[in-house]
Every structure is written in structure tokens, then in C-alpha cells.
Fold this protein.
Amino acid sequence: MMKKLSFVILVVMLLAADSCSKNPVNPEIIRATVQIDIDPNSVFYQQLNTVGGWIYVKNGDPGVYLSSTSRGVIIYRLNTDTFKAYDRIPPNEPNKCGSTTMLEVGNNFPFAKDPCTGNLYQLSDGTLFKGSGKYPMVQYHAIFDGSTLHVYN
């Protein structure tokens, strides 16, 4: 009896912890495979040489592998040692204007904009800043070891 009760409590705790995820992902979005290993201080990735710099990367760029379900990745340098990486797929209504719609930074900096809905997302943490929806940008792990930036899921 005690073992069953302990098991039930453990399952409930795990489910509660999972439901409190900091960055929930829209269930309509198929998770992409992402493996990026780049030197953010290289000439090719010059926009990342300074804090506040950002770039788009796509499959085929040097050091970048993205599965076909990714629409590309936005990499943003938050500070000297911290980078953020987000998929360009719109997180709330990914296919509202078609399957090729991508988040855009450009003149929207320091935000990424969904050109279809007008939603704005903060590059610093991926959260929705303006517009409607409940999901933040799809974020990937970004680890900088001092010379190479590793982005993965």
C-alpha cells in the first residue's frame, strides 16, 4: 500500500513539474533537430562580435545543421558570455499565413516580429511583448565555451 501511494505521489509531482515548464511550446509545432557549432567571433558571424548583435542562420551555413521542420534560427548575443537562440517559426499561429512565415528582427530590434499577426517577442528571453497568444518563441540551448557557441535541443 505504501509503495503504491509513494508511486502515485511521485507521478503527480512529475506531472505538476512538467506542466509548470518555463517555456511551453505550441503543440502544433513539430520540434526541429538543431545542431549549431560556430565561432561567434569569426568574420562570417561578424554581427555576433558585439553585445546586442544578432543573426539569422539556416541549414547549410558553416557549422549549422537544422532539420527540415526548422524555419531557421535567430541567434542573439545578450552579453559577453550569454547567447540566446530561437527558431524563426511563429510560436502562436505557425501556419496562419503559410508554412514559410518566419519571425523577423530587422528594424524591430530588440524584438522579433511575426509579420502575419504583428506579434512582437523579446530577444532577451523570447516572451511575447505585444500581441496575442500564450506561447513564447521556441528556444534552444545556447552554450558559449569562450570560443565556440553550441546551440542544440
Summary: Helices lie at 2-19. The radius of gyration is 18 Å. Residues 2-19 form the longest helix (18 residues).
